[in-house]
Amino acid sequence: MSSLLLLKGISAAPGLAMAPALVIDTRPLIISKKVITLSDVATEWNRLEDAISKSQHELSEIMEKTKQQVGEDEAAIFQAHIMLVSDPELIDKTKNEIKDNLVNAEYAFQKVSLEFIAMFDAMDDEYMRERALDVKDISKRVLRHLLNVQEADLSNLSEEVVLVGYDLTPSQIATMDKSKVVALITEIGGKTSHTAIMANSLEIAAVVGIKDVAAQIKSGDLLVVDGNSGEVIRSPDDSAIKKFNRQREHYQATIKSYESFKGVASKTPDGKLVKLLANVASLDELKTAIRNDAEGIGLFRTEFLYMNRLNSPSEEEQFQIYRQVLEQMKNRPVTIRTIDIGGDKEVEYLHLKKELNPFLGVRAIRLCMQRPELFITQLRAMFRASIYGKLKIMFPMISSLDELLEVKLIVERVKEELTQEKIKFDSQVAIGIMIEIPSAAIISDILAKHVDFFSIGTNDLIQYVVAVDRLNENLEYLYNPYNPAVLRLINLVIANAHKEGIEVGMCGSVAGKEEMIPLLLGMDLTEFSMSAGQILPARKIISSTNYKDAKKMASYVLSLSQAKEIETYLHHSQATSDLSSNLSPNLSPT
Ligand code: PEP
Ligand code: MG
Fold first, then answer.
1. Fewest beta carbons within 10 Å, which of 180, 269, 338, 459?
2. Residue-wise pLDDT tens digits, 440-472
3. 81 in contact with ligand 1, CB cutoff 6 A
4. Which ligand neighbours the alpha carbon of 337 most closely?
5. What is the DSSP letter of 27?
6. CA angle 346, 508, 560 (to 5 degrees)
C-alpha cells in the first residue's frame, strides 16, 4: 500500500475529484538493439510468434466489437490488420533478420516494418500509400506485446478513475469514456496544451507537470485531485478525505451560486455590454456551452473532427455537423475556425512530415495552403451550412497580408463554385482571422482593412512573443500573460480593430481568466470566448465591474513594467473587487 504523499503540479483545469488512479503508459516505445547468440535465435523466434498471435487475438476481439457496435465496414479495417500482421513475408523477413544478424526480435521487427512502411509510402497510388499507416499501426501493436507494454482501452471504463500518464494526447482525450474519467494528471504539458484545453471544456479537473509521475503513482492508488491549486494527494488519510469533502461541498455551492447569472445580459453596472461566448471542439461540448448560457460560439476548433479516424471527414459529414451547431445556437453567432492541424494536434493519415519545431512548422492555414483539397472541402461544408444560422469563418495562424489575400482568393473561388452549382449559401458570412502570431499583431492596422473581425489567440501569441513552447512545463514561469510585451500587443490589436471599425474578440485562454477580465474590458475588448464553465463566473465579474474603472485600471496596468507587479496588482484587485481604490501606494507609479 502506498502512503500519503502530496504532489505539486500545474493547475490546468479547475475542479475537485477523488478516485483511484488508472496509469497508462504513453511514452513512445523505446526499441534497443541487443546482440544475441545463435542459441538464442529459437527463443527470439518464439517471442515474435507469441507477440504476433497475441496481436491477432486482440485484433479479432476489436473486429467483433466494432462489428456489433459500429458496423461491418468499419470492422473490415481490422480484418485487413489481421491479414497484415499475419503476412508471411513480414514474419519470414523478421525471422531472417534475427537469424542472419543475431539481433533481438523487437529490433528486427521494427527494422523490417520500417522497410515495409517506406515501400508503401513511396508508392504513387494514394490507396497503397495509406497502407503505410496500417503497417505502422500493426507494428506498434506487435512491438507493445514484445515489450510487454499494456494499452488501456479508454473508451470502455467500468468505474470512475483519475487518468494518469506521462502525456495524454488530444486524441486520447477525445476517445476516452468521459462519464468515468473524473480528472487527468500528466507529467509533461503546459496550461494551454490542447489536452488541458479539452479538459477545461469537458469540465474535468486536470493537473499537468507532476514530476516523475509513473514512479509516484500506481494504478489503483486513491487520488485527490485539486485542479484549482494543481495539488494531488496520493493515498489520502481520513483527515485529507474529510477536508476534500468539505472543499467539494463549498466548490459545488459556488458553482450553484452562478446559476442566477443565467439568462441575463453581460453588462457592467454603468451600462457597457459585452458578449461572453464559448470555445468548443465537438457537439458534446456544444451541449455544455448551451447549458452555461453561452451567447454564441467564439471558437469552434474543427480539427478535432479529423482525429481518431482513418480519413478526413467528407464535405457532407462536416456540413451536417456545422449545420447542427448553427441550428442549436439559434441565430447566435458561431465562429467556425478552419483546421488548425499540426503543433500538438497530429492527424496520422495526413502523413505530415516530422518537423523539428512543429509549432513553427506546417500548421493550420499553412497546411491548408499546401493541401487545397482539404481546405476547399471544409470551406464548401461551412458555406453550405451558413444558411442555418449566423456563421462567421475564421482562419488560424495568419502571419502576413499576402497570406490573408491568398486565403481570401480561395474563399472567393469556393463561393463562385457554389453559385455556379446553384447551391445556396449566405454571401454575407463574416470572414475573420486569429491574431496569434506577433507579425499579425504588429500589422493589425493593415490586416484590419481586409477582414470583418479579429479574434486574439493568446495561447499561441504568448508562446511566439516570449519564445517559449506552450507545452514546456519547465518554462511555465515565462509563459505568462502578465508580460507587458504581451499586454501591449493585445492592447494594440484591440485599438487597431476599433480604428477600422471591425469586431474584436479573444478566444485564447486569457479571455476566461477572472483577474484578466476587468483589464481586457478596460482595453475595450468586446467579445470574450472561453471554456463553457467559465462563462457564468465571467458574467458575475462583468456585472460588478464599472467600465470607467476598468479603463483607468487598463491605463495603469499598461504603465507597469514587470509581469510580477502586474500579476500581483490584478490578483489583489480581483480579491478586493474594487478597481479604483486599488492603485495602492506600493503598486501605483510614483
Ligand atoms: C490560441 O492560440 O489562443 C487559440 C485559441 O488557438 P489554439 O489554442 O487552438 O491554438
Ligand atoms: Mg492558436
1. 269
2. 999 999 999 999 999 999 999 999 999 999 989
3. no
4. 1
5. S
6. 135
